Amino acid sequence: MDILTPKNKTRIVLDATLLTAIMNCGRYTNLRFNHNLTPAGGKGNSLEAGSIVHTVFEFYYKSIIQGLNRPLAIGNGLAAGELYIKGCEYCNGFLATEERPKPRCGHTPNQFPGVVNTPAESEGNLVGYNYVLKTCEEYFDYWKNDFWTPLEVEKVKGRVLYEDDNIIILWKAKFDLISDTNNGIFPIDHKTMKMRKDTVSLNNQFIGQCILQETRTMFVNKIGFQSSLPAKDKFLRPSVSYTAERLLEWQNEILPTWAYRYMSYAESDNWEPNFSGNACETKYGKCQFYDVCEANPSMREELLQLNFVKTEVWNPVNEDV
Questions:
Q1: Which of 132, 161, 279, 289 lies at a CB distance of 3.0 to 4.6 Å from 274, suitable for a disulfide?
Q2: CA dihedral sign of residues 147, 151, 156, 159
Q3: For residue 291, what are the contacts with CB-CB under 8 A and spacing of at least 6?
Q4: DSSP label at 123?
Q5: Number of separate domains in the chain
């Protein structure tokens, strides 16, 4: 947050990740986004598997936009996924600064970090990276007659969504994909899953993307890792639609309410924990700071030093808009 001198208003920059964190838990928000702490052991298996898929799709769809034929585009995507798994020695662990904005490989910092918690072959509840790449190949085969035309990939957009006498809220989002579906141009979000789940419209990311794209519909591109399911049940593209009234409520009531809560946390430096089940146990497992909260207050700093490392300063979607 920063103060704009001409109007003396607090400027708050939010994205879906930060807003959802604020809604869930003040302590988590403080440790993750103010102190920039992440587990020393790296991402969990679910997040690593999802990141491999996102990398494959990013380079595949970018190649299609650049005019490459489909086989070459698929090859580029899978090669990028393999590099993500192996890791690039130059961008892995690179912390960007004003003096060093990019690693010498030309990638964005940590674009290809290498996997830590994902084995080559699936083991128990762990999805192996060979299976992830195989799933991507199955996806390309299933959608070989895809009629969607990709227009933008990993596109960052931002716009002021709310302003009053005290605050200005800039909302930022990174779109996985924006495509012409023949019925219109819509945002598309890739979601990987180990089990089938209903698509829920109560989602800050989906709502924010619809508002920025000036549409009331977006699509979720689901990629399932269930080996027992046929392709038609693993690769789904459900739509999520909103009424204008719901979007306006989120923009003018829900968003500023939590922005003021965020400002209150920062001004008081009192980042209250939330011990409700939904905050402490997410779809990816326990909150990464679960053991810290369970420990005695006198032991928490030591646990943080032992089990967490500092990462780059959080900037919503890590892009300037």
A1: 279
A2: negative
A3: 303, 307
A4: B
A5: 1
The pLDDT tens digits along the chain (321 residues) read 554 444 689 999 999 999 999 999 999 999 999 999 999 988 889 999 999 999 999 999 999 999 999 999 999 999 999 999 999 888 787 777 767 777 888 888 788 889 999 999 999 999 999 999 999 999 999 999 999 999 999 999 999 999 999 999 999 999 999 999 989 999 999 999 988 888 899 999 999 999 999 999 999 999 999 999 999 999 999 999 999 999 999 999 999 999 999 999 999 999 999 998 678 887 667 899 999 999 999 999 999 999 999 887 877 655 443
List the CATH number of the domain containing 292. 3.90.320
Task: Give me the phi and psi of 34, to 5 degrees please.
Answer: -95, -40
Domain that holds residue 45: 2-318
